[in-house]
Amino acid sequence: MPQTNLKIKKNKDAKSVDSTLEWLLVGKQIGLTFEEMNELRIRDIALMADIMTGEAVTEATQEDIDMLLR
After folding, report:
1. Which of 16, 34, 44, 62 shows its CA 20 to 30 Å from the CA of 22?
2. How far is CA 58 from the centre of its chain?
3. pLDDT digit string (tens) for the chain, length 70 residues
């Protein structure tokens, strides 16, 4: 495992940074350049990834939300 001197501070912004890096990874995996990703919204990248993987995106219903919150 590579060693680094980078110190990671745990704070409320850590989750935001993690999700940003995850979306960059998704964009690279579907073949986008950083310049292309800079022009897109996360919603656009997610839609492109869904199209390329053949997964369908559906809107959550109230029943789905209620099941999640149980």
Report:
1. 62
2. 17
3. 445 554 555 665 566 668 888 989 999 999 999 999 999 999 999 889 888 888 766 788 999 889 888 8
